[in-house]
Amino acid sequence: MVEGDTDVAIATRLLAEIKVVPDPRRIVVCDGKTSLDARLPKYRQAAARSAWFVLRDSDRDQRDCAVALLEHLLPEGPTAGLCLRLAVREAEAWLLADAEALASFAGVPLARIPRQPDDEMDPKRVLADLCRRSRRRHVREGVPSRPGSGRLVGPGYSAFVEEYCEAWRPAVAAESSPSLNRALRAVTAMVADGRWAAD
Predict the structure, then answer these.
(1) Which of 103, 105, 107, 148 could be cross-linked to 134 through a Cys-Cys bond (beta carbons 3.0 to 4.6 Å apart)?
(2) Any alpha helices (H) in 23-136, and if so which ranges?
(3) In 3D, which of 133, 92, 73 has the Cα closest to residue 9?
(4) Residues 85 and 159 in one domain
């Protein structure tokens, strides 16, 4: 279960890192955090029968830390079959964390990619702004927002993320993103415990 369409590609690639292939029929896109949060109790119950992976951004939430936010989201406590992971602050930070892959794929200067993406206040904006400097016209013109659009990203953003996820290396990115490292360890534990079957 994820917030939006681009998160599907990120979550799918993350799970593929540990050889887990999600059933497309069980991918739930919630169209935002509010909808995802409202569904969590139901999926917490469902996790007693089958495992669920939930990816959620932690940006702009009025909580002191990820632990406090998790306690707020799951007041009854965690359950073994539900793997809820928080990207700090947005899942785009995880994409930024594989700097070499991003620089190569997007045609952007490696030196401009932040080395501690979890510290960025708005990783999605950082990613879009980086793409403004791309050597590739379709990235430069399609990924960032167009002047006067009032939007954060352009019409090619979703396709860019989906394609980039094929080159993105979660294990490498986890070295620069503590929140991704925790997520990778959590999903690996789900396989080790037998709650998910790896291919």
Answers:
(1) 107
(2) 33-46, 66-73, 91-96, 99-106, 123-131
(3) 92
(4) no
